[in-house]
Specification:
Layout: H1 22-31, E1 38-40, E2 58-59, E3 65-71, E4 80-86, E5 89-95, E6 108-112, E7 116-122, E8 128-134, E9 142-144, E10 147-151, E11 156-159, E12 169-176, E13 181-190, E14 200-205, E15 209-217, E16 227-235
Antiparallel strand pairs: 1-3, 2-3, 3-4, 4-5, 6-7, 7-8, 8-9, 10-11, 11-12, 12-13, 14-15, 15-16
């Protein structure tokens, strides 16, 4: 049986919004059986609200097919499945409870390189996330939340790691998808802006390095008025 467990960093840090259909679906969930199989989304079903723009099956330039599916059981109005395939290669990622949220939380195709497919989506009111689907389908898809910036060509993503949420300290982690290497940078000065990624001025991506620039509050300024530009470089 399929389950909504990707055994990786699945869609997270997302709180469901209030949904008026929850009570109406209680009886449905208690009684509906279904086939238990993955099926295409019936866009004529009025319970699927405003998802047409996001849930569009896609064929990439390199011949990868991306499909949006639901499981024909009591979760069909809650969980979204993304399947990517080419020839005999197939991967599946479950976005748990995504259909209960605003439609911009649904991952939407943004591009590809030689090793990964990139889908972007919301992860908060202002935050952006990227779902990465490996073309080596023996590997699992990974979702990165609170993305600062990314570069599809070099396969690198900069994001705020979960361990640094809601702290005055600013930490940015960069992952190189081609080899899975992650490198963090802890800034010396203070970020008082929410979301934290707003403190970052720019990220410059190159093949073997990433440069990150931020405007922060000088840690030595007790009045918290003086700003300072801090720059770091990560070598890959």
């Amino acid at each position: 049986m399929l389950s909504c467990n990707n055994k990786n960093e699945s869609v997270k840090n997302i709180k469901p919004t209030e949904n008026k259909n929850v009570d109406k679906n209680a009886e449905f969930k208690a009684t509906y059986k279904g086939s238990g199989k993955l099926v295409p989304i019936d866009l004529n079903d009025k319970k699927y609200i405003d998802i047409n723009f996001y849930c569009k099956d896609t064929l990439t330039k390199n011949g990868w097919k991306i499909e949006y599916l639901v499981k024909d059981d009591k979760t069909k109005y809650d969980d979204l499945y993304v399947r990517w395939s080419k020839g005999n290669k197939t991967g599946l990622f479950c976005c748990a409870s995504t259909l209960l949220m605003r439609s911009y939380f649904i991952p939407k195709y943004n591009g590809e390189n030689e090793s990964h497919i990139f889908l972007t989506h919301g992860c908060s009111t202002q935050g952006e996330a990227i779902l990465t689907l490996p073309k080596n389908t023996k590997q699992k898809g990974i979702d990165y939340s609170f993305v600062v910036d990314y570069d599809i060509k070099t396969g690198k993503i900069g994001y705020i790691p979960e361990r640094s949420y809601s702290l005055n300290e600013l930490e940015v982690e960069v992952v190189n998808l081609k080899n899975g290497i992650k490198k963090p940078i802890l800034f010396k000065n203070i970020c008082l802006v929410t979301p934290e990624e707003s403190c970052i001025d720019k990220m410059m991506f190159e093949k073997n390095r990433v440069e990150i620039t931020a405007t922060l509050i000088d840690k030595n300024d007790k009045m918290r008025e003086k700003t300072i530009v801090e720059k770091h470089t990560l070598e890959f």
